[in-house]
From TrEMBL:
This is Acetylglutamate kinase. Residues 34-288 form the Aspartate/glutamate/uridylate kinase domain. Catalyzes the ATP-dependent phosphorylation of N-acetyl-L-glutamate. The record marks K38, K269 as: Transition state stabilizer. Keywords: Amino-acid biosynthesis, Arginine biosynthesis, ATP-binding, Cytoplasm, Kinase, Nucleotide-binding, Transferase.
């Protein structure tokens, strides 16, 4: 049997009470607001972390916040493509997507990664509803034709979201559900001829959308109060991989200047954060999904964690 001394017990209890009190103004401020969480495949490191993320989302729901989860699954897709012998490569941080790859991507995101997240959240009650951009006309996308430098770029069946049907998500939030969204989206026809040949305005093709990009569009369309992207790094580094260069906050303008120098997966992630803030989301954060309960710490502590992007002319609030 182990026993804590009275003073240790008192100190521990006091620290817990202080933590709860630190959360109070944030709970008051955010009650009733919508927050979009992008859960990246690289942040889904182990069962404990995935469970902690699900707990955080349920916690948020129970303090009156309306959480929406948009998930990725890049590493899980790569594992499945490898095991099936389907080659895949990234350009500009995006996966070049063939028809064969697309059907695997759709299967992994909606049938595997999304299902698992829904199950973890629903271990706490009947909250999560899994959907993809195809369900209830949630998303529409057009093919990506240019790279981040503006030059022509052919990535195959890769899309960028052009429309979000917010009603599909709002209706679920209104009845207390937690939408868990996979980032595949029906393709919008580019010309009237395409439209005539396809399903009205849609071509009948499904596109692979980077989950950061999809999450940012969902956040903007919903008028979210916050966009939080969980990844496998502490935040944005000014001089990657110099670990002493972690940025705790920056403005949209500062981020815009950094974008051309970013590498790999950080390109779509920081473009998404910028898009969210430029689209009217007051704050976008990049947090470390490998650290348990990073979502709660970001939202309910005074300093937050990770990197926060604020609109031009504003500092961290
Ligand atoms: N400036 C930077 N700051 C932080 N990470 C960076 C930077 N440049 C490149 N990276 C890389 O980007 C990765 C995150 O992107 P990605 O692997 O696509 O995440 P996710 O799967 O969560 O979407 C980091 O693990 C890191 O290797
Ligand atoms: C076009 C594109 O790159 N799509 C991504 C979709 C999944 C994703 O974004 O997953 P993460 O968030 O885990 O990186 C892909 O195929 O990997």
């Amino acid at each position: 049997m182990s026993r804590l001394s009275d003073s240790t017990r008192y100190e521990t209890a006091r620290t817990k009470a202080e933590t709860l009190m630190e959360a109070l103004p944030w709970i008051q401020r955010y009650a009733g607001s919508t927050m979009v969480f992008k859960y990246g495949g690289n942040a889904m490191v182990n069962d404990d972390l995935r469970r902690a993320f699900a707990q955080d989302i349920v916690f948020l729901r129970h303090v009156g916040i309306r959480p929406v989860v948009v998930h990725g699954g890049g590493p899980q897709i790569s594992t499945m493509l490898d095991s099936l012998g389907i080659h895949s490569e990234f350009r500009d941080g995006l996966r070049v997507t063939s028809e064969a790859a697309m059907s695997v991507i759709r299967m992994v995101l909606t049938g595997q990664v999304g299902r698992e997240l829904v199950g973890l959240i629903n271990a706490h009650g009947p909250y999560a509803v899994g959907m993809s951009g195809e369900d209830a006309g949630l998303l529409q996308a057009r093919r990506v034709r240019t790279g981040s430098d503006g030059a022509p770029l052919d990535l195959g069946l890769v899309g960028t979201v052009t429309r979000v049907n917010t009603a599909a998500v709002e209706q679920l939030l209104d009845i207390g559900k937690i939408p868990v969204i996979a980032s595949v989206a029906p393709e919008l026809a580019e010309t009237d001829d395409d439209a005539a040949a396809g399903l009205g305005a849609l071509t009948g093709q499904v596109l692979n959308v980077n989950a950061d990009t999809a999450a940012a569009e969902v956040a903007v369309a919903l008028g979210a109060e916050k966009f939080v992207a969980l990844t496998d790094v502490e935040g944005l580094y000014a001089n990657w991989p110099d670990r002493s260069s972690l940025i705790s906050s920056l403005t949209a303008g500062e981020l815009r200047e950094m974008l051309p120098a970013l590498e790999a997966g950080m390109i779509p992630k920081m473009r998404a954060a910028l898009r969210a803030v430029e689209g009217g989301v007051p704050r976008a954060s990049i947090v470390d999904g490998r650290s348990p309960h990073s979502s709660l710490l970001e939202i309910f502590t005074d300093t937050g964690i990770g990197t926060e992007v604020a609109p031009d002319g504003e500092d961290r609030a």
